[in-house]
């Protein structure tokens, strides 16, 4: 049966609901609806919720439509990059909750034709939106230095220079069109057998670059505050240290009244806190949850409540 849990186990579901859904929740945005597992639980948690279900991947939305079929009259599906939903949110009116569950879904990882996994033979695509630049095109266009920088920054890949050179060589020699070809190139740059962990780091780094994942998150964090009701909740799940740091810094900055350096005696920045952070420490999955869903092991949950906007 087509069902969210056949594709993707929603990560830290209880914690997400605890922080995201309140008795006052009316309009909730799932900005990365994926297979709709979190979304379905949100709809069950509060029958007054209308959900804006967003994903850039049309295949994800097809699955989410099935998962959420019982709630069809309370869900609006939007195919979009969450970095570009400012107008959609303004039109929808005040938002009471936003969930951002970053990264890839199991459906994307486990579909060979999407090219996300080094363990499955498929074309070198990795584009979540299924349109625009593919991983192969990205590699062809990037210089050796750019490719190396991407691997270092997004994957903390050791021997990034040599691996980047081997990948570029394969691309220049028309020997790079599949995930298998990329794996062979990585192995050649690493000097032989390459553990799955390092293969994953390289694939992840290229995926993050192809989909401009950090750029999208930065834009999203800029657009969200203007569209939130007072008391609205923001809950994020990130799987990469750079994403988590961006969210942590955003929450710290926006929950602070004055951002002047300590040496300035009188505040001149006039910055006012718009958030209250609800997770004093980042929340991680429990051991039991990691056992049940190893793919969620690197998840980091943060939550905040908006202090500004219309009163709920
Ligand atoms: C980890 S999955 C979400 C899983 C979902 N919470 C569930 O319960 O099934 C991440 C989803 O976010 C989507 N996504 C990633 N970046 C996006 C972006 N910039 N805009 C919209 N959707 C995005 C992916 O296509 C993927 O379906």
Task: Please summarize what this structure is.
With 312 residues, the protein is an alpha/beta fold.
Furnish the topology, listing elements before pairings.
Blueprint lengths: L3 H4 L5 H8 L6 E4 L6 H9 L4 E6 L2 H10 L7 E5 L6 H7 L2 E7 L4 H5 L24 H7 L2 H12 L4 H13 L6 H12 L5 H15 L2 H11 L4 E11 L2 H14 L20 E3 L9 H6 L7 E7 L6
Parallel strand pairs: 1-2, 1-4, 2-3, 4-5
Antiparallel strand pairs: 5-7, 6-7
Helix pairs in contact: 2-3, 8-9, 8-11, 9-10, 12-13
How would you describe this structure to a colleague?
This protein has helices at residues 4-7, 13-20, 37-45, 58-67, 86-92, 106-110, 135-141, 144-155, 160-172, 179-190, 196-210, 213-223, 241-254, 287-292; strands at 27-30, 50-55, 75-79, 95-101, 228-238, 275-277, 300-306. By secondary structure, it is α/β, with parallel strands linked by helices. Strands 3-2-1-4-5-7-6 form a seven-stranded mixed beta sheet, sandwiched between helices. The protein folds into two domains: 4-107 and 214-306, Vaccinia Virus protein VP39 (Rossmann fold, 3-Layer(aba) Sandwich), CATH 3.40.50; 130-210, DNA polymerase, domain 1 (Orthogonal Bundle). The structure holds S-adenosylmethionine. S-adenosylmethionine (SAM) binds at residues 4, 8, 10, 32, 34-38, 54-57, 60, 81-83, 101, 103, 105, 128, 216. The site of S-adenosylmethionine has 22 residues, from helix 3 and strand 2.
């Amino acid at each position: 049966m087509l069902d969210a849990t056949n594709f993707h186990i929603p990560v830290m579901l209880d914690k997400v609901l605890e922080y995201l859904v309140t008795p006052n929740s009316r309009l909730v945005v799932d900005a990365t609806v994926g297979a709709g597992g979190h979304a379905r639980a949100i709809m069950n948690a509060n029958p007054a919720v209308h959900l804006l279900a967003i994903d850039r991947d049309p295949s994800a939305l097809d699955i989410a439509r099935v998962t959420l079929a019982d709630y069809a009259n309370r869900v609006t599906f939007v195919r979009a990059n969450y970095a570009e939903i400012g107008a959609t949110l303004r039109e929808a009116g005040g938002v009471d909750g936003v969930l951002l569950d970053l990264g890839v879904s199991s459906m994307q990882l486990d579909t060979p034709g999407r090219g996300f996994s080094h363990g499955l033979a498929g074309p070198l695509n990795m584009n979540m939106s299924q349109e625009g630049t593919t991983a192969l095109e990205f590699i062809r266009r990037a210089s050796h230095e750019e490719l190396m920088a991407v691997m270092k920054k997004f994957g903390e890949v050791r021997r990034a220079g040599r691996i980047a050179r081997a990948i570029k060589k394969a691309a220049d020699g028309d020997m790079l069109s599949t995930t298998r070809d990329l794996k062979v190139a990585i192995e050649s740059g690493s000097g032989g057998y390459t553990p799955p962990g390092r293969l994953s780091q390289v694939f992840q780094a290229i995926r993050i670059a192809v989909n401009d994942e950090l750029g999208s998150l930065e834009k999203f964090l800029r657009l969200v505050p203007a569209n939130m009701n007072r008391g609205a909740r923001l809950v994020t799940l990130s799987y990469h240290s750079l994403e988590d740091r961006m969210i942590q810094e955003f929450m710290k900055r926006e929950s602070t009244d004055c951002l002047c350096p300590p040496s300035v005696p009188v505040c001149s920045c006039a910055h006012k806190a718009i958030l209250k952070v609800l997770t004093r420490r980042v929340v991680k999955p429990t051991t039991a949850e990691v056992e049940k869903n190893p793919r969620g092991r690197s998840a980091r949950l943060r939550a905040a409540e908006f202090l500004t906007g219309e009163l709920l």
